[in-house]
UniProtKB/TrEMBL annotation:
Any one Gene Ontology BP term: Mo-molybdopterin cofactor biosynthetic process
Reported function: Transfers a GMP moiety from GTP to Mo-molybdopterin (Mo-MPT) cofactor (Moco or molybdenum cofactor) to form Mo-molybdopterin guanine dinucleotide (Mo-MGD) cofactor.
Free-text comment on this protein's domains from its UniProt entry: The N-terminal domain determines nucleotide recognition and specific binding, while the C-terminal domain determines the specific binding to the target protein.
PANTHER family membership: MOLYBDENUM COFACTOR GUANYLYLTRANSFERASE
Keywords: Cytoplasm, GTP-binding, Magnesium, Metal-binding, Molybdenum cofactor biosynthesis, Nucleotide-binding, Nucleotidyltransferase, Transferase
Compartments, record wording: Cytoplasm
Pfam family, one: NTP_transf_3
Residues at which GTP binds: 20-22, 32, 77, 106
SUPFAM superfamilies in the record: Nucleotide-diphospho-sugar transferases (SSF53448)
Protein name, UniProt field: Probable molybdenum cofactor guanylyltransferase
């Protein structure tokens, strides 16, 4: 942590927060979104963090009953079973704000300061369509910021049955933000914030981390 103060520039009423929670969690063997992490479930942590930087939160899922207890609006995939790009597509279709901050439900160290850092960069870049973290050469399109208009190119990809999100993101006019910039912008360790859980071992590792 650098201790840097993050300045809030973007009014939250220009931002919709989207939590992706429509996956099958096959590798985990149970719904990742409902796993407890510290005092709350994974989905509650994501909704809380994203709710601090946006005026409206949407859960993108095909299983709204599981999230009814949260009292948060759920949006169903238009193309069900096609992965996170389809989830983002449906949620952007429901959005009415220029900027949209997206997070997967399986990131235990998600932090509003990180999201705000990405949003702050987004509004200083008139021509960019997205702000995408890149850590160790790997893009992280599931914790990122998108203009609503990217829905058009996303829809084209889905119609062409091209479901590799990184390939789509590479075609966007995006600000790709490296590890050093991310740390400077947010005051947080990007590797930790961007860590995501796929397997029971990842879950154990994250729980160890969060209680230490
Ligand atoms: N709305 C929506 N979200 C999805 C879909 N597939 C994955 N996600 C979400 O996207 C994020 C990354 O998902 P993955 O870990 O790649 O896939 P998963 O299906 O959850 O897990 P595995 O079955 O183990 O691959 C998670 O937040 C998922 O909930 C989908 O078809 N629709």
């Amino acid at each position: 942590m650098s201790g840097q103060t993050v300045v809030v520039n973007l009014p939250s009423d220009s931002v919709t927060g989207i939590v992706l929670a429509g996956g099958a969690s096959r590798r985990m063997g149970r719904n990742k979104a409902l796993l407890p992490m510290g005092e709350a479930s994974m989905i509650e942590r994501a909704v809380q963090a994203i709710g601090k930087v946006s005026s409206r939160v949407i859960i993108s899922t095909n299983d709204p009953k599981s999230y009814h207890f949260l009292g948060v609006e759920c949006v169903l995939d238009i193309l069900a079973g096609k992965g996170p790009m389809a989830g983002l597509h449906a949620a952007l279709g429901a959005s009415n704000t220029p900027w949209n901050v997206v997070a997967a439900c399986d990131m235990p160290f998600i932090h509003e300061q990180f999201l705000q850092g990405l949003l702050n960069l987004a509004i200083t870049q008139d021509t960019v369509e997205a702000v995408i973290p890149v850590v160790q050469g790997r893009m992280h399109p599931l914790l990122a910021v998108y203009r609503r208009e990217v829905m058009t190119s996303l829809e084209r990809k889905l119609q062409a049955e091209q479901y590799r999100m990184v390939e789509w993101v590479e075609e966007l006019k995006a600000a790709y933000v490296n590890e050093e910039q991310l740390e400077h912008m947010t005051g947080l360790d990007p590797r930790k914030v961007l860590f995501n859980m796929n397997t029971p071992d990842d879950y154990e590792a994250a729980r160890g981390f969060s209680s230490s």
